[in-house]
Every structure is written in structure tokens, then in C-alpha cells.
Amino acid sequence: MAAFLQLLLGLRSLAIRIVIFVVLAGVFAWMIGGSIFPGSQVVNLPSFQWRQQAWNLQVTGNGNRAAPVRWRLLCVDARGDVVEQTLGIEGIWREVHGPVVHAGGMLIAAHAEGDGTSGWWIGSMSNDGTVGARAAASEQEARMVLRGADGANQPAAELPQGLPAGAPAAAPASASGL
Fold it and tell me: I need a surface site. Which of 3, 8, 54, 142 has the fewest CB within 10 A?
């Protein structure tokens, strides 16, 4: 009987030590800005103004395992609500070039996956809010369309990804594969 009590006391002591360790590990992870069990990581790129609204790109990655990222174009509407804008490009955006604001509206190129297909698309929104999209044969074609946008405030050289035309180029050179 005494050996059984010794075993129970040992197990209780071990359980208390495990609880203290987990609590202290959680507090330490919280203090350094992390988590013991990481989830999705969301990054909002700097916003830009167009049509008296704030727009920005958002990228989401998985913190648990290697997986493709997901891009979204967000707009803050008149009521202050954040609304996702697809610009006619359906599916999950895996890579993005742009957006480019030009004289007639805004363009964005995205590599989208959905319904067993994937490909490059060019989405547009005119100044009056009309949305449209068309398929692009390749990433190079999509980039050429963005470069040639009428009245774009962007040099013909390399387009910075994730920034509107004319914005300061403080972002990384590529918005793909984060």
C-alpha cells in the first residue's frame, strides 16, 4: 500500500511540473509575440487611396506546414467595412502583380486556382465601378498588360508587386512565393 501511495505522489508531482512548464512556455511565447500552436499568418500590405476608398493587398500563409499562400484585394467601403474585391478573378489567388491605377481605372494580374484549373487572369475595375476579367496566356502577358495601362503612373521598367502605380517602392520586388 505504501508503494502505491508513493507512485501516486510521484505522478501528482510530475503532473504539477508539466502544468507549470506548459504555462510558462505559453507565457514566454506570448511575450515574444508568438504562439505555442501557430495558425495562419496574415500580412496586410500598405494601403493606397483610389476612388476615395482605402485599398490594400493581404497575404495569408499557413504557420503549421508548408503550403501555398493566398492573396486578397481588400477595400474599405463608405461604412468602414472591409470588403474583398475579386475584380472578376474567381478562385484562390496564389500570385499577384499590381495593382496598377491608371486613367481608366485599376488593373491587377493574379495566378488563380480553382475547380481543378489554374492560370493567369487580368482583373479590372473602371472608374465607374464596372468589373471585368480576362484570361492571360502567361505571366509575361499579364505583366505586359499592366505595364501598358493607359495613363498608368508607372515606369515601363519592373513593376513593384503589391503597390499601386506611383506609390513609393518600399515593398519586395516579388509578391509571389512568400
Answer: 3
Q: Which residues, 6+ apart, have CB-to-CB distance to 172 below 8 Å?
A: 161, 162
Q: Which long-range contacts (CB under 8 A, 24 or more apart) does 21-27 make?
A: none
92-112 per-residue burial string, b: 16 or more CB within 10 A, e: under 16: ebbbbbbbbbbeebbbbbbbb
DSSP three-state, residue 95: strand
Q: Give CA–CA dist 105/177, Å, rounded.
A: 27
Task: Looking at the structure, tell me whether residues 48 and 126 fall in a common domain.
Answer: yes
Task: Quote the domain boundaries for residue 12.
Answer: 1-37
Could you tell me what percent of the chain has a pLDDT over 90? Answer: 42
Full-prediction pTM beyond 0.70? no
Tell me, yes or no, whether 65 and 118 share the same domain: yes
In one-letter notation, the amino acid at residue 82 is V
